[in-house]
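New to this. Help decode the following:
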Amino acid sequence: MKIAILAPIAWRTPPRKYGPWEQVASNITEGLCALGHDVTLFATGDSITKARLIHRTERGYEEDKTLDAKVEECLHISMLMEQAHHYQIIHNHFDFLPLTYSRLIPTPVVTTIHGFSSPRIIPVYKKYNDTCHYVSISFADRSPELDYIANIYNGIDPSNFTLNTRPEDYLLFFGRIHHDKGCREAIDIALKANKRLIIAGYIQDEDYYRTRVEPLIDGEQIVYDGNAGPQRRDQLLGGAMALLHPINFHEPFGLSVAESMFCGTPVIAFSRGSMPELIAHGKTGFLVNNTSQAVEALSGIKDIDRSYCRKHAQARFSVSAATEQYIKVYEDILSR
């Protein structure tokens, strides 16, 4: 099967550190290559892949601030669409803009909807309901206004994460530092529980970090470890007694939650968005509604079987499982 994967170009594919959409696009690309499919990845020129790589810009616009993001995005998308007839399937990981080409090209477009940045973009998805094929990454993130061909949880490569059954005595917050992700709430939980907290992640909101997070970082009980890359991510996730995920929004998926479980580390998360789909309450972590309940849940962490956390993640969130499901979607579309 000849497949084109359209990755975002904010960051490299796979990202050096932060870049969840690029990471998922990479995982699916490599999974398809491993199964022998003819895959072309449209991404930045410095991307690493076993697929054929086609690019216009050498580096992601978040890594090269001399680039105009909108200009690069338009040129990147159009480069694929002008070659669309070479492929049997286009798999879009680039949000809604590529949909506007779908009635102008002969190739079916599968779009993984990685979340809605705003309800204002839904009219674009609605317009192309009849020509595009939408995949949700959780049932919680589905819009009642759209039609979906499948729900496929994000696929993660288990080889990038090490099971650790002997964690250290610290809690971890891993994710972009923004109000949505609840970094301040994680600090409050750690302080109330008198536990050490390591914070790792990309500072997305500088003002939030400066006013709500940084004043409480003392380098001892509350530590900021920076924006961790893959090796450090594996160490931090595996070494933690628990991952804190006290989100303030309806999160579509939450890669760090699944990645944590691949390391055997249970997750304490606010029960919002996709969290009830990702976490088996009482078995791979705890779903709570506030910081006080999160502190209480810490007492149950010692009873969680870390090996079971890994098995749970392997069964539901492995790249092999996701890739097989996407192939079924492609075959279904091509058979119509």
